[in-house]
Amino acid sequence: xxxxxxxxxxxxxxxxxxxxxxxxxxxxxxxxxxxxxxxxxxxxxxxxxxxxxxxxxxxxxxxxxxxxxxxxxxxxxxxxxxxxxxxxxxxxxxxxxxxxxxxxxxxxxxxxxxxxxxxxxx
Length: 122
Prior knowledge:
By secondary structure, the protein is an alpha+beta fold. The protein has helices at about 1-20, 75-80, 85-90; strands at about 20-25, 35-45, 55-60, 70-75, 95-105, 105-110, 115-120.
């Protein structure tokens, strides 16, 4: 019985995780709380090595402070990348999947694995 419950839970979780919509970068503010796929260009990036949890921030759609949204990569996820994300993704078109949140009233997507982000051909 416990096995069946665990299996059912995994199926529901997998289905919920894959339930995402593809949106335009300029519409991200309308999708706070939604799981989305969004593609656009990284215009600026910065690694805050000395800050708490050492975040890497990728500013998408425009350079900081005019970015449409920010991709947040915490230090634990950063370790999954072979190349520093702030260098690798800078000036490239990317697709990101994840849940849209807000930080200081600005949209962001926090990465929990490197599989959530990919460079796309121009």
